[in-house]
Design a protein that fits this description.
The protein has four helices and five strands; from the N terminus they run E-H-E-H-E-H-E-H-E. By secondary structure, the protein is α/β, with parallel strands linked by helices. It comes from Nelumbo nucifera (Sacred lotus).
Length: about 120
């Protein structure tokens, strides 16, 4: 999979980068997230405006708790990012089967999720 990476930046800078990558033909964007939940959501919304059809790879390097990972996914689906497709890489320390159950129920038929987790169980 060929993608471009967007580091942790402001929403306006993320919009600028996403616009540039969109014009260059990149359909997948990998975003570093996990430092600030609300800032991450604003950045993702800005990117969605610049590149409405892009696929996200969100890489939090385990920066979210399980509850924060759930929050970010709920907020994205509820605030104009309902067509979210993405891979969630190391969103949190996934030691909670509840988190996986919640993901499969909440996002069933709404989005396509791949979860990369080294810390399951």
């Amino acid at each position: 999979m060929l993608y471009m990476q967007i580091p942790i930046v402001s929403p306006s800078k993320a919009f600028e980068l996403a616009s540039m990558y969109y014009k260059q033909g990149f359909n997948t964007l990998k975003l570093k997230v996990g430092k600030n939940l609300n800032a991450d959501i604003e950045v993702l919304k800005a990117i969605r405006l610049a590149h409405p059809d892009c696929m996200f790879i969100l890489d939090a390097n385990e920066g979210y708790t399980a509850n924060e990972a759930i929050q970010v996914l709920e907020k994205l689906c509820g605030k104009g990012v309902s067509a979210l497709y993405g891979m969630y890489e190391h969103l949190c320390m996934l030691r909670f089967r509840d988190f996986l159950s919640w993901l499969s129920e909440t996002f069933k038929n709404k989005t396509e999720l791949w979860i990369h987790c080294l810390h399951l169980l």
